[in-house]
Amino acid sequence: MTHSTLRIRPARTTDAAAIERLAALDSSHAPGGDVLIAEVGDELWAALSLDDGHAVADPLRPSADAVLMLGARGRQLRRGERRRSHARVRFA
Which domain of life is it from (predicted)? Predict the structure, then answer.
């Protein structure tokens, strides 16, 4: 049995149609704004909006862990953004 690696990356505009199909499979709407996606091989398993936390996942695959990993990565990214924004604050 071949194991494929789960890859998390920011969605690109070229991923829009695949995210829409995934949302339809999940009987939901596509996540909007800044979106992270989880892929296994060349297949999209899950997508998560960094703006509002809305996630969609392929119900025909064991994708629950992919959604959890997207959430964890999103929290890491938000913490990093907060640190950078605090570093830019200058007091008179």
Answer: Bacteria
Q: Strands, E, within the chain: which ranges?
A: 6-10, 35-40, 43-49, 55-57
The domain in which residue 60 lies consists of 6-88
**pLDDT per residue over 33-45, tens digit each?**
999 999 999 899 9
CA dihedral 70, 72, 74, 75 (to 10 degrees): 170
Closest by Cα among 41, 33, 34 to 3? 41
DSSP lists the bridge partners of residue 55 as: 48
What number of helices (H) and strands (E) belong to the chain? 2, 4
Whether 53 is in a domain gets the answer yes
pTM score: 0.83
